[in-house]
Amino acid sequence: MTGIASLMGSAATGLPSLLAQVAQAQRIPGKIDPVPWCPAWAFWVLAALTVAGALVTITRRNLIGAVMSLVATFFGLASIYALLSAHFLAAIQVLVYAGAIMVLFVFVVMVLNREEEEPWSLRSPVLKAFGTGAVVYLLVRIGELLFFARPPLPQRAGTPPPNFGSVSEIAEYFFTKFLFPFEAVSILLLIAVIGAVVLTRTVAKPTSVHDLPLDQQPKDPAADEGDSGAHAAGHGAGGH
Amino acid sequence: MLEFLADHSAIAALLKVFFLLMAFVMPLASLSTWAERRQSAMMQDRLGPNRAEITIPGLGWTLRLWGITHFVADALKMAFKEDLVPSKVDRVLYGIAPIMAIAPVLITFAIVPFGSDLCVGKMTEIITSLEGCRRTIPLQVVRLDIGMLFYFALASLAVYGTTLAGWSSYNKWSLLGGLRASSQMMSYEVTMGLSLMGAFLYYGTLEPNAMVLAQGDNPLNWGLFYQPLGFILFLTAAIAETKRAPFDLPEGEPELIGYFVEYSGMRFGIFFLAEFIETIFLAAIVTTVFLGGWHVPGLHEDGFSFLKLPHIAVVLLRSAVWGGKILFLCWLQLLIRWTLPRFRPDQLMRMGWKQLLPLSLLNIVLTAAWVLWRSAH
């Protein structure tokens, strides 16, 4: 239930704020408002949504519910990107993570359609100890960050430059300064795609006579009736 | 009034949303439900729905209009039908699935430019360009730098509506329909995105209104003639995304009935309406990218070369022609829907991955080479 509540929360809060943000960033020369419009409450609502969605994802037994709350988390993240004027990143976050990868997750869960059962990781005492240790370490680090070391934060980051986060700006970085990592990632993805194809490829074995090429298929006996007996006998001996 | 709207863009945006959805998209979607059945009847030599009529009480005068009021009768029937929820459904997901099917497509209308910019204060004058305008009101809800990416991002979320409807209904046919829908939409989304890349390269922008401006009022400069392959690929992939025939495998009536088989009344009505809104949105995108958007052939900012028109008349004419282009493309989609038979699942997958996808990649390479050659000369 909570997963769905957070999902609906994302639809109710994330989207209008995303829309408002992008509406604010309408790039009309001479019309744009130079004052950055970023209400603090929008950030806190979206941050709460993101964290709540993540918590629901790891606590929920129902797989589809968990996946949908992860979608809500991604949506919250995308909205936070939009608040930070990174509209391109926000769109890509929704497109790739919420729209493509999670749809694949839902698809796989639906195909498997497994009954809800106890997660395997809770059975082994070794894994339990490992998990407890990890949680304690995380809590210690968070406490350290919150209560001890507090570096002075800049009060105001300042207005981003007018082209910040736009598609052309990002494209320029990709094709000049970060060209090599960009192309390297594309080659990495290509290798992954080819690897996936090789792994799933099976050598084509004809499972039925109808899959054979036409000249190798056995003739339909009904069509042979009009032929001479010698021909039909020869065919029967060789073909069947 | 217009000055006030020019200064308060948020209120203007709300008004534009209201106009676009309530005065254009929703009525057109409702009418297409009637038009589809009527057109199919004409194509199959039947009469179709022609009986709904309105009787005006005082005059005793009956208004039939070829049964055009059938959509009102349908809406009333759906609203008053019993809202039947099967006992074993996942209630929450079952409830939000129709919303997740219709919300993304309604939101994406935000980026569609439905007219040229209004020049506030010079409405009745003949102007030659918008340069001298101090304040303008764009006839587009938001003008985003990421433009079409916003559409792709939200379109990719539309899969959840059908998939969740299929899964949450606790019905084998629904589940199969949902599976078919998700695999089909995932496959054709790739081609849909890649087939527009050529157009992005050609226009050098992702912003829909900038694309319309780049095409100009000469029909020979419209995207259709520079991206013919992209046009065909996008239209095919986008029709597959709307899940209408010949791509209606998720709701193939003789085999599955559909992912919404357990839905009744208005919940089913929302799925039904979402499909027609998707066809209208597809028409709007095709108009924007390939058919010159709101441009009217030969109509400049100051009117035709033989007839000068005031600014307000130019803007109104452009919006009207924009609507006409959308009506034409909706009609074309209905025609395709009643002409082609349904694909088999293996044909569908083969076409998506082995034919359309390589062709869309080829389109990108060819367009990139051409853009490079053009910039060198």
Q: If you average the pLDDT of chain B, what whole number results? A: 90
What is the overall shape of chain A? extended
Largest sheet of chain B: 2 strands, antiparallel
Q: Output the number of helix runs of chain A.
A: 9
Order of helices and strands of chain A: HHHHHHHHH
Number of strands of chain B: 4
Blueprint (SSEs and pairs):
The complex is a heterodimer of chains A (240) and B (377).
Chain A: H1 2-24, H2 40-59, H3 63-83, H4 87-112, H5 125-148, H6 167-175, H7 179-200, H8 221-224, H9 229-239
Helix pairs in contact in A: 1-2, 1-3, 2-3, 3-4
Chain B: H1 2-7, H2 9-43, E1 54-56, E2 61-63, H3 70-80, H4 91-108, E3 118-119, E4 136-137, H5 148-157, H6 159-168, H7 172-203, H8 208-215, H9 223-226, H10 228-241, H11 265-290, H12 311-337, H13 345-376
Antiparallel strand pairs in B: 1-2, 3-4
Helix pairs in contact in B: 2-11, 3-11, 4-5, 4-6, 4-11, 6-7, 7-10, 7-13, 10-11, 10-13, 11-12
